[in-house]
Amino acid sequence: MVTIIIARLRGLAVRNLCVDGIPDYLATARLPYGMTYFGYRTGASPMAASSSTSSELGRPLLPPSKTKNATFHRGANFAITGATALDLSFFQERGLDKGMWRSGSLHTQIKCSAQACRELSRRSLFIVGEFGGNDYGSTLFAFRPLSKVHALVLHVVASIGRGLVVPGTMPIGCFPMYLSAFREHPPDGYGPRTGCVKDLNTLSWAHNAALQREIARLRAKHPGVRIVYADYYTPAIQFVLHADKYGMLKQTPRACCGAPGVGVFNLNLTSLCGQPGAYACDDPSNHWSWDGVHLTEAAYGHIAKGWLYGPFADPPILDTTKHLG
What we know:
Blueprint lengths: L2 E5 L41 H8 L18 E3 L10 H6 L12 H4 L4 H8 L2 E5 L4 H8 L5 H5 L2 H8 L4 E3 L8 H6 L16 H24 L6 E3 L2 H9 L15 E2 L20 E2 L16 H13 L3 E2 L2 H5 L4
């Protein structure tokens, strides 16, 4: 039986924050978060690709690692909301820590004793990521030059190149949050077909290219370890270009849950999902963007299938689990 270990998967990370109760200050603690998967307020954003991955492998929703008296023999979710790949000290040294979640980095999530790690890793499928989004977002929303954000790529990739299933990052220039916040671009700054911000997508592409080089290096160094690159970028671009193919509305990137704001994105930076003035669309499965920065459950489900069976993983995850027993 394969044990699934998750670190920082979008949509699951907040659950460790809420094991002792849902904080009132947390926007994701309020409906409409949780409306489709759980049917009640949970403190969870739409379930990530890992949820569908677990289901396909015959596993239930993984319990948060901070849960008291829980059984983790079938897996655990170590994800922490707002987690970065790099330690907080990295951002403090650069004056980028203002407004960041102080909940922990990748290194915090994967700490365990040598013996525990050996026992855990023998028959486990580790899903590590998507990391990088919070690292880059903290710098972008500090309005540092894009060259400074690109300078983080090698640091971030070096920090996360250690898992078995390592997701890349999404095309952040396509998300309503970034399209609304960074709209001072000339017409040629947007993709002619996607409408996404080209230089922000270039950042995501640079991260993913560097991450794949790091995975190739680790594969060569550890030929007995199967390391999967899980692609978020390609399917997200397909949602933008061919939304109707996936049963979603053919439209400009638009948040299901938000408030009228800039352009046609249904997003207002002062009334985000879960805050007064925001509301959810009637059918989230018609959208690929849930709240402007996360995907909908339907979109994550399409990605999960691509990770399990191909073509959005190299190699597909099910090829890897066959070798874990």
